[in-house]
Amino acid sequence: MRLTVTAIGAGGDGIARTEAGPVFIPRALPGEVVEARLIGKRGDGQAGVVEAILTPSPDRVAPPCPHFEQGCGGCAVQHWAPAAQAGWKRDRLREALARAGYPDAAVAETMTTPPGRRRRADFAVRRGPDGVALGFHLAGSAQLLDLAGCTVLDPRITALIGPLREMLRRLAALRRDGSVVVNLLDTGPDLVLRTDGPLTAAERVTLAHFATQAGIPRIAWALKDGVAEVAVQSGPATILLSGAELTPAPGAFLQASPEGEAAIIAAVLAALPARLVGRGRIADLHAGLGTLSVPLAARGRVTAFESEASAVAALGTAAGRAGVRVTAQRRDLDRQPLTVAELAGFAAVVLDPPYGGAPEQVPLLARSAVPVVIYVSCNPAALARDAKAFAQAGWALSAATPIDQFVHSAQLEAVVAFTRTPQRGSMRDR
């Protein structure tokens, strides 16, 4: 079929409108006329594959990574000019806020992190008749693409791909499928290896030799979905977050890049009132390792709520050593959200929920007397759903910043600030 692409969907695919419904076409751009082959039903439309680009977009560029043309699922829009990608992500945030009830939201320009700076990778591993493959899955497929490199990852991670593949080839614990998570800490790469077979004593020695040769201070191992144990450790595994040195658990969540982390922190601090009411107490919900808690402590006394015990312990220890005003508390906010009464003592709340958002906590925040809530989102759909509760409760939207730290992907971070509009006779006026 000859189709005209009119938009880019949430997953990064081009969308062409037909009488029979939309056609979703990977690697096609808005404004392009393409010859496409339909390959089956997808959602409320059809999936298509580009056979030829008849009229290319002026924003089409040569992808910087050869794996993109091979169908690597790690990136969706490498073929699109950076300025166009930034505009698309800004529009996605606008659309999410409009769906929530803020059609006239002022959205800042997208802050884009540079390529080659991503400090976390989750590699799939598979043993086959031709050896061990290590890399990412093809887009929309369980098939594994064996990586030679990656333009998005920090070069110190890509330098490990070849040596990791060779080491895994010698591990009988890898029978068929496994994974390797790499976090780039200040002390070097930190690894979590998962295999589908048990790790022998001799293989622990193999891991120790590999760690020494590759400059890796710690390697943890787990059987499939089991709890990871430290298999090798030759030195400290630490990272400095806003001046506080932490020892994260193996595989702990980190913001994708130092630049992305800095942009999120800057947007959160800018959204805080110049002067906090009352005693200046700040709640950091879903605090993780304290990426936001520590810098927030420069503005007030922070209580950090987090469900992961290892993160609470790491933050508490780091805060004590650094002398920052952070108290870390373990609490599962999905099962036990802060009540309206508990929220009453805070001058500001920062909320950084997981991908699914915070459907249990947000309605309570919307009903609370907290003056400002700053929502850090990694999912526009969840943000649109959660922000609707603030709109319906009469909150104003005071700031919205899109942050693209997953360059060339369809993922989008955002920092959005909601401020309560005082009501006559409300508890805040008494």
UniProtKB/TrEMBL annotation:
It comes from the Bacteria. The active site is at residue 378. InterPro entries: NA-bd_OB-fold, SAM-dependent_MTases_sf, TRAM_dom, U5_MeTrfase_fam. It holds the Pfam family tRNA_U5-meth_tr. GO terms for molecular function: iron-sulfur cluster binding; rRNA (uridine-C5-)-methyltransferase activity. S-adenosyl-L-methionine binds at residues 255, 306, 352. PROSITE patterns: SAM_MT_RNA_M5U, TRAM. The keyword Kinase does not apply. GO terms for biological process: rRNA base methylation. Keywords: Iron, Iron-sulfur, Metal-binding, Methyltransferase, S-adenosyl-L-methionine, Transferase. Residues 1-52 form the TRAM domain. The keyword Zinc does not apply. Belongs to the class I-like SAM-binding methyltransferase superfamily. RNA M5U methyltransferase family. PANTHER family: RNA M5U METHYLTRANSFERASE, TRNA (URACIL(54)-C(5))-METHYLTRANSFERASE. This is RNA methyltransferase.
